[in-house]
Design brief:
By secondary structure, the chain is α/β, with parallel strands linked by helices. Helix content is 41%, strand content 19%. The chain has six helices and five strands, in the order E-H-E-H-H-E-H-E-H-E-H. Strands 3-2-1-4-5 form a five-stranded parallel β-sheet. Helix 1 links the parallel strand 1 and strand 2. The model has no long low-confidence stretch (mean pLDDT 88). This is Adenylyltransferase/cytidyltransferase family protein.
Amino acid sequence: MKKSGDVVGPVIGYVPGAFDLFHVGHLNALRQARQWCDVLVAGVVADEVCVATKGVLPTVPLAERLEIVEAIGIVDAVYAENSADKTDSWRDVGFHRIFKGDDWQGTAKGQRLEAQMAALGVEVTYFPYTLQTSSTALRKALAHRGASSA
């Protein structure tokens, strides 16, 4: 069992993300998180939450994103994240450690998450963000490709 503070029993890890246009960056995050917990839950952000927080409607619907993330066999469970507030997810899932890309580390949103999770006794663990691949970059490439073929 991996250690997480004073946790007795299995350490539950939580990886939130849109997981839209599933790519190697998503795979890297899930693989890395798997090493830091006994039970890994992927929080797949609902469409309306993506719109509210990122201003983008996912290309792949929530039900399909949940199915894709569950099917790759790295996570023990998937959770439809219907709120941007990670406290809501924590209440439902009961995780001990939350994983984020290091693009959050040292930022205002990362500091808010750290404070929020510390109040719950949850550790925030950062992993290297896969810069060369992101859903945003894929959307831009697809839009560019579509515009140049029109």
